[in-house]
Task: structure prediction
Amino acid sequence: MTYNLLKGKKGIVFGALDENSIAWQAAKKIKEEGGTFTLTNASIALRMGGIHQLAEECKAAVIPADATSIEDLENLFNRSIEVLGGKLDFVLHAIGMSPNVRKKKSYGDLDYAWFMKTLDVSALSFHKVMHVAEKLDAMNAWGSILALSYIAAQRTFPDYSDMAQAKAVLESIARSYGYRFAKKKVRVNTISQSPTMTTAGRGVPGFDVFYEYAHKMSPLGNASATDCANYIVLMFSDLSRMVTMQNLMHDGGFSSSGITEAVITSLYPHDKTNPSS
Ligand SMILES: NC(=O)c1ccc[n+]([C@@H]2O[C@H](COP(=O)([O-])OP(=O)(O)OC[C@H]3O[C@@H](n4cnc5c(N)ncnc54)[C@H](O)[C@@H]3O)[C@@H](O)[C@H]2O)c1
Result:
């Protein structure tokens, strides 16, 4: 069912690599809800992924940008305003990458140049996006800017490595820039999403196990990329206009659960004292 929640709204969607990407699913939902947008990714991802197929489906222009480059971001915002015919109402930052995770470095033996890269790509890029948007006066009043986070910002998940620090910084940037952008009535939030089977997700060692664990620890189960896309639409719509500077849990209840019947049953399948066995 569609509600035309984003009719007339314009924006930029970062991070659609392939159809598993959260940004890919978000782009499709935004389109269904009447929004128009440009799609962007780093040049190498544009060559590897199938973004042009998505662009055709969504009738969206593709504008390459490395999200760590101010010059690329300025070009992206200027061209997006040109192509879309006016200032923007929403921006989705769905970007994450850690060379230390990719190269399976242990947390006690991180490469510090790569650590800086992790922070730059996965967190500071969010600041750069908003810095450029503000400098170019690219956002309409009551616009909405979102980035995607993970609960490793608050709790330790060992194999998530330096991405945990990146997510903590990302969430902090949302609060600080959200305060600043409120003067222009622009809201800024992060959505903390369940583990999701995407290229970035699968890149974390042992991902299958913590995907299964999170599923069992979430009373509603893991939220999928499509569920996340629906939440993104809500956050871009006028229905959430007073929500800002928040880290919004979108995790089927994981973050509020101490233990669940599903976890107890998997640990003690034959325990007669366990009412769920
Ligand atoms: N998959 C999960 O389990 C999960 C859970 C919570 C949060 N998230 C977050 O969701 C967001 C989207 O990731 P995803 O899971 O859809 O994976 P994905 O691999 O599909 O998307 C990550 C994107 O980041 C882009 N990217 C990397 N470096 C870039 C750069 N320098 N400039 C521009 N773009 C760059 C990649 O090209 C890719 O499109 C990330 O922030 C990720 O950390 C993912």
In short: The radius of gyration is 19 Å. The longest helix spans residues 112-135. Residues 14-15, 17, 21-23, 41-42, 45, 66-68, 94-97, 121, 148-150, 193, 195-196, 198-201 surround nicotinamide-adenine-dinucleotide (CB under 6 Å). DSSP finds eleven helices and six strands in the chain.
